[in-house]
Amino acid sequence: MARLADYFVLVGYDHDKRGSGDGQGRIIQRFPEKEWEDNPFPQGIQLFCQPSGWHLVLERKSPNFFVAVLTDINSERHYCACFTFWEAVESSQPQKNHTNDVDDEEDSKFVQAPQLFAPKSLVLVSQLDHTEVFRNCLGLIYTIYIDSLNFPLESVIGNLLTCIIPITGGSQRTISLGAGDRQVIQTPVNDALPVSGCSVALLLKQLGINNVLELFCAALTEHKILFLSSSYQRLTEACRALLALMFPLKYSFTYIPILPAQLLEVLSSPTPFIIGIHSSFRAEMQDLLDVIVADLDGGTVLIPECIHISVLPEPHLLQTQTALSMVLDPELEYADYAFPPSSMSASSMKFQDKEIRAVFLRLFAQLFQGYRWCLQIIRIHPEPVIRFHKVAFLAQRGLLDVDFLTKVLEGMAFARFVSERGSPYRPCDLFDELVANEIERIRSEEGNAQKVLKHVKEISEQLHRNENPYPAVAMHKIQKPKEGSHLRVQQNTFPHLDEGTVQWIIDQATAKLKNAPPAVKAEMKCMVPMGPPSATMIDQNGIVLANSARRLEVVRNCITYIFENKMLEAKKLLPAMLRALKGRAARQCLTQELNSHVLQNRAVLDNQQFDYIVRMMNCALQDCTPLDEHLVAAALLPLVTAFCRKLGSGVTQFAYSCIQEHLVWTNLQFWEAMFYSDVQNHIRALYLEVDGDHPSETGCNSVEKQQRSALEVAAEQLRMWPTRSKEKQQELIDKEESIVYSQAIHYGNRLTYLLLPLDTSKNRLLRSTAVGDLESVSNSFVTNSIAGSVAESYDTESGFEDAETSDVANSVVRFINRFVDKVCTESGVSNDHLKALHANLPDIVQMHIETLDAVHRESKRHPPIQKPKLLRPALLVGEELVMEGLRVNLIPDGREESVGGSLGGPPILPAEGAIFLTTYRIIFKGAPIETLAGEQTVIRSFPVASFAKEKKINQQSRTDQDSQDGLQLRSSTFQLMKITFDEEVASEMVEIFRKHIHKLRYPQYVQSTFAFTVGQSPKQVVESKQKEKNPSLRTMSKNIMKNAKKTIGRQYVTRKKYTPPTWDQRATPHGDNLDQISVSEEIEQSALTLSTTIRSDKSTMSHMVERACCRDYQRLGLGTLSNSLTRSKNEPFRITTVNRMYSVCRSYPSLLIIPQSIQDSTMQRISRCYRQNRFPVVCWRNSRTKAVLLRSAGLHGKSVVGLFKSQNAPAADPSQTDSTSLAQEKYLQAVINSMPHYADTGGRNTLSGFTSAHMNSSDSSDKQRQPKISVLMKQVMGGKEEMTNTFSRGGKWGSMRGSGRLSAYSLNSDVGLRLAGKDTLSPQANGGPSDSHYLRQPRAGLYIIGEKSQLKGAKQDPSQQWEVVPIDIFDARHVKTSFKKLMKACVPSSSSTDPNQSYYRSLEESDWLSQLHKLLQVSVLVVELLDNGSSVLISLEDGWDVTTQVVSLVQLLSDQHYRTLEGFRLLVEKEWLSFGHRFSHRGAQTMASQSSGFTPVFLQFLDCVHQIHLQFPMEFEFSLHYLKFLAYHYVSNRFRTFLLDSDHERIELGLMYEEKGEKKNQHTYKSVWDYIDRLSKKTPVFFNYLYAPEDGEVLRPYGNISNLKVWDYYTHETLSEGPPYDWELVYSRREQVDDGERAPRTQRKIVWPCYDNQNKTEPDAISKLLEEMQSLESELGQVPDKWKETWDKIKTTQRTESKQEGKHLSSSSLLMSSSLSHHRRSQCVYLHEAAVGSTLNLSLDTDSSTTSTPSSGVMGRKSTSTLYSQFQTSESEHRSYEGILYKRGGALLKAWKPRWFVLDKTKHQLRYYDSKSDTDVKGIVDLTEVESVTLGTATLGAPKNIEDKAFFDLKTTKRVYNFCAQDSQSAQQWIDKIQSCLSDA
Prior knowledge:
Layout: E1 2-3, E2 7-13, E3 25-31, H1 45-49, E4 64-71, E5 77-88, H2 104-111, E6 117-126, H3 131-146, H4 153-161, E7 164-165, E8 172-175, E9 183-186, H5 199-207, H6 209-220, E10 224-229, H7 232-245, E11 254-256, E12 273-278, E13 291-295, E14 300-302, H8 316-328, H9 349-367, E15 375-379, E16 385-388, H10 390-397, H11 403-410, H12 412-421, E17 425-426, H13 430-437, H14 439-444, H15 449-467, H16 499-515, E18 526-527, H17 549-563, H18 567-580, H19 584-596, E19 603-605, H20 607-621, H21 626-640, E20 643-648, E21 651-654, H22 668-693, H23 702-707, H24 710-720, H25 726-755, H26 765-768, H27 774-778, H28 805-826, H29 831-861, E22 881-890, E23 911-918, E24 921-928, E25 938-943, E26 947-953, E27 966-971, E28 975-981, H30 987-1001, H31 1010-1013, H32 1033-1055, H33 1063-1066, H34 1090-1093, H35 1097-1106, H36 1108-1116, E29 1133-1136, E30 1152-1155, H37 1160-1167, E31 1177-1181, E32 1188-1192, H38 1197-1203, H39 1214-1233, H40 1236-1239, H41 1247-1253, H42 1260-1265, H43 1269-1276, H44 1283-1290, H45 1304-1316, E33 1342-1347, E34 1362-1367, H46 1372-1386, ...
Helix pairs in contact: 3-4, 4-16, 5-6, 5-7, 5-9, 8-9, 8-15, 9-15, 17-18, 17-19, 18-20, 19-21, 22-24, 22-25, 25-28, 25-29, 28-29, 30-32, 43-45, 43-48, 46-47, 48-49, 49-50, 49-52, 52-53
């Protein structure tokens, strides 16, 4: 029973405070004046009477009514029913405040003011919510007052305040206030169910289904919700409705349905709330960024952008929406029916309200189904203590990933739900019945709308009966005021009530109540039903265990193998098992299987078993969400103290010491859940045992008892509690407390086990997780772990200082104390027990530390688990190890292929092995961790000289806990190594490894690179195993430097050379001072001069003449230079020696081509105008049009002004400027005059001269292919349509001399007209030139391609015959930046799902293809100009980067000679090496150039050649592999060819020419060209089978980006053997090694894109046939022919047959007739390495004792270093005697082989060849070294059936050669001939 109303209050306008801004209200009267003891009067009630503020109004308003809700400090709600009416303000009242300071005149004015009305409120304050009753009661009081009825107000109010009604029970109570009224009050049957009236239906009507669902989810997930409406009562109803929908949860935060204006700052509260405000305050809501605003009047819900509301999970959301629409709009289902049912209409608002609530009640039953099975009962007596195991609930339901439910379970409302509904013995309500009994029905009815609706209506009927148990038969009788009574003009004010009368009535009623018997509320307590157990519930995500049966089988089998000690089988299954453990079912299976192998809480394992079990446990704890991690950790907790291994006598290591690296062990909430779970089990066992002692008390048998849950046991105990004696009660309380206490001690030990690290000097977990933050961790299930685990490094490099043991102990003790405090306080443990626990904990921790010390010590001594033996890499001859292998894991990067990816297949990476550092390479060699690929060997390597960038990474291995931090090493050969170091690798070894890489990558001198030091000085190898024997870093660097200096010193002694400094050191900021030469500290400067370096003019000239480029100049008709330096005068060009001492230009070669008429002295003057003194020189001449290609650097800024003088710009030094300018003009005119058609016409470029000399020589096919030069020029000079604008911005260009007659427009027209005439056809869409008629227009004699930025402000004279083409071109910085981006695009360090970081997006952003496009565009333009008879001067940047690229590409496109192997070598030697491309500087080869960075200008050129090769595969003699080979080795520093920056530097180091008599090591090659020559004779790998050139063909490739392809050199790799560019490593016969050092072999044949060398495993047909022919010849005992000879024979035979058959086939069609496809033949392929039979002999060794440079190349070209054939008599004239001899190899057991021997008296040598027709010298015996020639004897393996006297021996100073002639006569002849030669000498 309760009072209907606690207080009646009369609140009026406070006229006393009227002058102070806003008005205020004041309480006029309050009844009773004395506060009730059980219910104090709420303060501030006057604010809620007028929520918008107290204001006087000009006209009387109609009375209004609303109910506000106030919440007191005890969270009790008070319902304030406010009835407000308006009274006239008496005019005399306001004057009281102004009598002292206002005169009479003002008073009279005030009196005449208009009539005002003030509000007055009648307020009822109650703890009950009976809105309509309050409305009627207050309306009755108002009616008595306004209509002056004859009822005393005091007695009415007294009766109201003394009215006592029941709170619940469903009874009806009729009340009367003594004014002839009668009301019936209906109480709810069960007050636990909210009473909603029609408010819920009204809310749905106002906002709609989706909006209400959003508000519902927002309220449950604790967001701030604000209702707006112009009606206060609607606000109250909406808030009440939202709370009703949340049942069975109760809202626990701020709840203010009507918020007064004065309290609007409450909206800025940080806590969640549900608040309503008047819509007039909408404008003040703009600043609220985290509040969800629901406008009830407008029907909208506004959710700010920063708020994310977790929505209901599917399928619940859809089911709820469907059910609500069926309730609110039942006609929807039949709306489309042709004959809809006539009876379908929505229920009344009152019934609709209950149906909507029924839908939400069903929803909660579905969401919370099975929740009682996850309640943990910790104490039963004296009071039940219950907790909810959230993780177990979510896991059993399969809802771990559902954000909405997780947040709901973490909320305050659910905590209150557990505390109120958790008790197993209490009254039950509708929700309990639904959860317990209706779940199966709800599940079965899903999807059946009619059944769902039927169930909803059943529930709604129960809800309706709760509010209206009886039919409404009683009639209410309430007097109401007459119509319009509130508008009467003359009204009395509300009378002052007599307090005494009211108080007397109240006292009378109170006295009567005291005498009445107390009302006893009968509580119907019962055992709360549990509902169906969670085990029977279906996983909502559809993860059915049966689907993962195969994975579970793998898990079971692997564990069985481990415990049966079948380690080989276990190892094979382990990777698959570790992958399977990513699934929840497999983790659960793992714990179950491990449990089955634990006997009596202990399982002792051997080392290998222990290691595997620990790895599985770690894997199970990784890669999972924090909630999953809780479940796995809970299952593993008993196991980690069971599995152990014996380390020594009395020392046992448990599994917990190896799995501590997971944050779950520092999560308080996890430990609490585990603790409570164990306590519950013990409590249950206690009471089952107690009940067992008294079987008579329970009516069930023992089997049923054992199956009862803990809650059921607790409910039984709570029921029996009052019947037990006090002694028994106390005994049970003590037993429960002792259980909690003993478990607290047990968990103190467990926490100690898992928090104290094995090495107690390094506290990982408690340091990485701030201990102070652990309080907050315990309130939230989400840990701060990304992957659910943490891996701090064990070593001191991790950034933490060494911690003292006591520090570790203290932090662990603090953590355990916090845990013990929390659980013991919640569990009701006495203070004495708690103090005892705190006292014991430090001792427990200290004892465990002592135990761990012994374990740690023993585990260090214990031999580690046997890891795979390190595979040693094969090394090149002369390559030496700098560091022994460091054990590492090679982990995947962003390339998909190696990890399966889109291609499928087993992952090759990650792989375990070792990383080696040699003098030449960084090599990883190992085997895949994945067992299915584990038989393969993985090799990834790159030259240390190509090392580009290093980055430290922190990669936690998913399968192994032992990896430390790693390194990411990137190479400019497009390779990336991501490695993590094994735990056995000390951090100092990693540091030494890094330092060595940097030392080798950036040596101090170029002589310290591998190309120089190879095989010269033994290096001290750093051992990685014994740390104490390792030399210090300083010692190591000293050794390396010492070795380098030895090498350098040796060269100094022999040649007296000095080290030239780098360009950066020499150049001043202006780049002028290039003559300062820095000298090495070890050499006297006085002893070093250029003349001593280059010995004498005569010898120098003879060497220069031998240069290959001179032969090329001779081939091109650009002048000759004999030994006597005489020259022919009738040639237009000559070779000048002006630069022979490199005095004019250091970066140019010594011999240069200039016009015949230009004197050497002039060149000195001209050179000063150009950057780096690189003046214009001729480098190529068109044999048909005689146009020449020139190259130079760009002009100096001052020289541009001098050369292109403007009329108005006076020169500073006229004479000097004029002479230089004149010299340049003379030079350019001489170039123009060199062309016949210009020279004949006196230098004038006339139409007739042009056409006669040039046009008639073009054939028809050429005419069709000519692109329009105007179009090309437009593209090159800046666009198509925008060309005019571009030119007007960039400046005016034309002739050399300035002229004021030309405007920008006329210049553009002029250039356009002179270049291409007026035809303006556009080019083809694919970027190629358009087919157009050949335009016979006059052209300039010389075009100068220059940079726009350098040629600004100049004007040209149209009378001159040269024109300047200004172009925008990228510089070296752009190339460097672009290359970095290209590397990251082609070899990404990690895979990314971000579309902005996709491969094609990254490739586009790199701009690499755009730069290739620009180069090809400019090159094609120059080719066209040259082909049309105009000479071109390329004058860009410093003349050694873009200039070199363009000049080389132009020659390659124009001259087919450069498309042969010999010609391409010549092109690179001439344009790149001789003309001083700065290979060392651009490649950052030394420490001095380190800062400049790697700029791959040469690689860009090779890529352009690759693009051209793809478009013209039949025009190139060399294959694409040849280009890749050069791309790799130009940065590898294996050869000396691409070292240093110019010929000048190479001569100073003695690299230009081999010293006579210097013996080369036969295994090492100093020149890449020698290596290629030798290799080309062995194998066709560099040869293009499609080669079928057309004579005189000029190539014009398409240059648009759409026509360009990404070079596969950037993207392909071969993990089986490493980069395929070191031929000996890949193809040489494998040396015999132990089985232990070799990876396991297999008969399987796998062809894997990133792993196998596909060209080797699947060779093309021609390579395969050539190889088979060679194999067959070897088997028949014949000397195999060279592949080239065989190939040439086949081609010749094929041509002959074709001619005989009368077919006239071109060479191209001849080749195309073979069975190979075009694409197949356009690719270079490797030779197949067959499994049986002999393979191609790919050895680069020779059989001779001394080796000389081969005398002929692959196409019969003579070597550049031995040029007998060119300047001396031919070799064939000196064959004194020749024939076949058998020769035995140099080694003891080598075979006898027939060779063709030639005795050469002139050269005093004995040469031998493979066959008579062979031109390649196999070996040479120098006769000066021969000591004797004697008859020999037959030895082992000699040819059979040969007489003994046919053998003879040749003894030299170095060795003895064994020969065998065909018979004794031949042998004697050979002996005589050799003796004759010796005597002649």
